[in-house]
Specification:
11 helices; binds zinc ion; binds ligand PBG; two-stranded antiparallel ribbon; about 40% helix; about 325 residues; TIM Barrel; 10-stranded mixed sheet; alpha/beta
Length: about 325
């Protein structure tokens, strides 16, 4: 039986009918809002390659996070820009480092806000790589101790979720062991499990000042051509104790999100990364696309592919749009 008996357009006739049969809906309750924090006070510094995104000092960060929270965004993920960089990224695990200060202030002012911290070394190392070096080689095992120290430092400051983004082998296990040993058995790990070596991170590296000073990240981040390997990374991270797994970037990797979703029973997160955000903003600024509609369409596709949680720079504007506050 098909046309003229079958007419799919019948269910598209009115907005109310379309709403009744809509399969996927976005909810700000699933958004995690990435924020950049630096030292100082009163800072609200625009990131030129990410229109609408700012870098905050701790005081203005509190204002931004509380505005987001009031708009229905329940969680933030923090990226730190340190005062001082060295080969071992020591501010990453300093109790007076920028992230430790920011987490303490956020949890004091907004105890209900879920504070996720990105655990990596690239923002803190003088060479911009995500691990320690031997010459131009990024060393795996010696990096694990530093990542574990960073995770414990964040947990001590009050972080609710630890999110390692470095892509060293064994880092989830090393972090889990250290957290448990230090009394943080209840703090979950959201691992950047399938993180690709992507050109979509360009604007982020401006914002976080984390561009590698030589080479690239292809010896630790994944090859964009690989899908089965993503499932292997996810399985390994779960075996090491990850509570949630992430796919990153999101839009060019919707097939990976779908494959991971079908394979695991833990929450799946997807990172709608800086380049994905900036492309929407750039095209909208030129009037080439409707930026709001593109944003919602992109976020919906990520959810439809199977993501439970979405990390996105659009979190505030999308939440406002979805709840009719704009
Ligand atoms: C640090 C990190 C990066 C991103 C999140 N954590 C950059 C990178 O790996 O170079 C990218 C986020 C984005 O582009 O929005 N390891
Ligand atoms: Zn890194």
């Amino acid at each position: 039986m098909s046309f003229p008996i079958q007419r799919p357009r019948r269910l598209r006739r009115t907005a109310a009918l379309r709403g009744l049969v809509r399969e996927t809906s976005l909810d700000p309750a699933n958004f995690i809002y990435p924020l950049f924090v630096l030292h100082g006070s009163g800072v609200r510094e625009p990131v030129p390659s990410m229109p609408g995104v700012l870098r905050f000092s701790v005081d203005t960060l509190l204002e931004e996070a509380s505005a987001a929270f009031a708009e229905g965004v329940p969680a933030v993920i923090l990226f730190g820009i340190p005062e001082h960089k060295d080969p071992h990224g020591s501010e990453a695990y300093d109790d007076e480092g920028v992230i430790a200060l920011a987490v303490r202030a956020l949890k004091k002012a907004l105890p209900e806000l879920v504070v996720v911290t990105d655990v990596c070394l690239c923002e803190y190392t003088s060479h911009g790589h995500c691990g320690v070096l031997d010459g131009e080689r990024v060393l795996n095992d010696p990096t694990l101790d530093l990542l574990a120290r960073e995770a414990v430092c964040h947990a001590k400051a009050g972080a609710d979720v630890i999110a390692p983004s470095d892509m060293m082998d064994g880092r989830v296990g090393a972090i889990r062991t250290a957290l448990d040993r230090e009394g943080f058995a209840e703090i979950p790990i959201l691992s950047y499990a399938a993180k690709y070596a992507s050109a979509y991170y360009g604007p982020f590296r401006d914002a976080a000042e984390s561009t590698p000073s030589f080479g690239d990240r292809r010896s630790y981040q994944m090859d964009p051509a690989n899908a089965r390997e993503a499932l292997r990374e996810v399985e390994l991270d779960l075996a090491e104790g990850a509570d949630m797994v992430m796919v990153k970037p999101a839009l060019a990797y919707l097939d990976i999100i779908r494959a991971v979703r079908e394979r695991v029973n833990v929450p799946v997160a997807a990172y709608n990364v800086s380049g994905e955000y900036s492309m929407v903003k750039a095209a909208a600024q030129d009037g080439w696309v409707d930026g709001d509609r593109l944003m919602i369409e992109n976020l919906t596709s990520i959810k439809r592919a199977g993501a439970d949680l979405i990390l996105t720079y659009h979190a505030r504007e999308a939440a406002r749009l979805l709840t009719g506050k704009r």
